[in-house]
Amino acid sequence: MFRIKRGTLQAKNSKASLSASLRRVILGIILVIILSFVVSIYVLTERERRDFNARESENVIKTLSNNIVSDIDKYKSISRLIMTDDHLLTFMRSNVDRIDMGMINDARYAIMDILNVTEGVDSVMVFRNDNIMVTTNRFTYNYDYDLMTRDGWKTEIYAGMGKAVVSLNSNHIAEKKDGRPMVTIGRAIYDIDSQQLTGILMMNISPAMFERTLINLGYDNICIMGIDGTFIAGNEEYAKHYSKNLVERTNGYKNIRVGRADYLLTGAQIEGTPIVILRATEYGLQGIPFRMIFIMFFLLFVFLGLGIYVVFFLRRNITEPIFELSASMDRNRKSGELKRIEVPVPNSELDMLENDYNSMIDHVNELIDKLMEKEKNLQRAEMRVLQEQIKPHFLYNSIDTIGFMALDAGAENVHAALETLGSFYRNFLSKGEREIPLSREVMIVKDYLSIQKLRYGDILNDEYDIADDTRNVIVPKLVLQPLVENCIYHGIRPKGEEGTIKISSFMLDGVLHLLVKDTGVGMTAEQIDKILNSKRSEAEEMDSESFGLWGTIERVRYYTGKEDIVRIRSEIGEYTIIEFLIDKNEVRV
């Protein structure tokens, strides 16, 4: 019996199993889902916390900005009121030679009277075009007189054309002796009557005003700064994290660390001012979308449950049935027999695989049976030939002895017949070879017909048309002699008149054609069909000669490995032609 090669099984076992691959794939999917979930939760949480802090900071900064703008507008109104005071106008209009300390003091006192109705103004400085000035709190400042004589610090104020211009630290011409920063409101002063530029007014707002605003609003995480980085009020610890690019947009954001806590620093510049507001908001649980996270956790558990279900489903419905099928096939292999397997499988696809395997087993068994039957038929045919043979040396010696006896007795015809018979058996036996050249096969037929002519006399004629390119083609031994014998006993002799047997051969498209024709009684279509399509059990019911014809056909089929190798044509009372077709690729030359 045939066995499956172990090397094939080992090669298959060396590959990764489907079960292991599926487990790895499912595990990989679960890990990807968990990782994606963790990343999504982190990104969503951080984004929502940042957005929450950013929205809260924007609202606070907007509220604080509105308050500061409102306060600055109040101081702008006061600066306009100061510009219209009569004492100050007298000071601004007087010629330089008429100005004295009394006039300057009158202007200063008038300014101070106006400032008494408000708070937060640290000082007011008024400069004539000739740089003569009136100032309050003069002795609390240091002045840069050299810078005063230049026009650079006035440029921005002049560009305002009388409108209030907010700047820092008196445009650097004066600074507080204690180093405190100031927010400065500057205006260009024009004469009411002549509209001529007469000087500049600068009002310094104390940072205490901003501190008071923060206290009133309850903000302790605010830092108010100048756009140049000058700290003004609030929590100075945040000032070190300030950079100009933080306020290049409407609102800028920056993650900072203060102590051991993480904060979102939001910065915004108050429109129309050089003042920047920074707000630091600590990251906490505020803004975390817990409802969304709970939903995502629920979905994660659903996906994990589905993954576990898929694993068990694949294991129960695919991998375990496949293992059972494989184990059944392996038991079949180890048993040394090719038997059908019966394994209960849960789905039609695996059932199809089992049926295909069983179909293959049935087909292999069928092929084995056919092969064994052909081998048996060949052995029976050869045994039939061997049973009809006589030991060569004894036969040759006997024929030679009888021939010399006939020659001594003057029976020359008998001597010639015995020589022909000896030649026939030498070629017939062919040293036990199974295949011989076609030329030797033709010699066997010629010797056989010579012997038969001694019996049937003139009613038997033979003709030969053997192509030269076919003489050395190797063919099965005794492929023609049984056909010639069949022609004599089933064709010419029953007809009872003179007949001819013709042997022909030719090559066509690499195929050897062997033809044996007789002019005997012919064959019916039923007889031809019975010979070509009978099984061995049916053929054995024929007479021995017909069985020899069927056996020869079977031997040629076995020799070529093909079924369609014979053609039989006949006409009742006229002729019968038996033709063998042997592919040259199937024979040896």
Overview of this structure, please?
The chain is an alpha+beta fold. It has 16 helices and 19 strands. Among the domains are: 47-282, PAS domain (Beta-Lactamase, 2-Layer Sandwich); 433-586, 2-Layer Sandwich (Heat Shock Protein 90), CATH 3.30.565. Helices cover 51% and strands 20% of the residues. The strands form 5 sheets. It has a 5-stranded antiparallel sheet. It is rod-shaped and about 190 Å long. The two termini are 34 Å apart.
Q: What labels describe this entry?
A:
589 residues, alpha+beta, Beta-Lactamase, Heat Shock Protein 90, 16 helices, disordered N terminus
Helix content: 40-55%
CATH topology of the domain at 47-282: Beta-Lactamase
Q: What is the 3D shape?
A: rod-shaped
Radius of gyration: 62 Å
**Largest sheet, strands/sense/barrel:** 5 strands, antiparallel
What is the secondary structure topology, with strand pairs?
Layout: H1 6-13, H2 18-83, H3 86-93, H4 101-115, E1 121-128, E2 133-135, E3 141-143, H5 145-148, H6 155-159, E4 165-168, E5 174-176, E6 183-190, E7 197-205, H7 207-217, E8 222-226, E9 231-234, E10 252-258, E11 261-269, E12 275-282, H8 290-335, H9 348-387, H10 392-408, H11 412-429, E13 435-437, H12 438-456, E14 460-466, E15 474-476, H13 481-495, E16 499-508, E17 511-518, H14 525-533, H15 536-539, H16 544-560, E18 566-571, E19 575-583
Helix pairs in contact: 2-8, 3-4, 9-16, 10-11, 11-12, 13-16
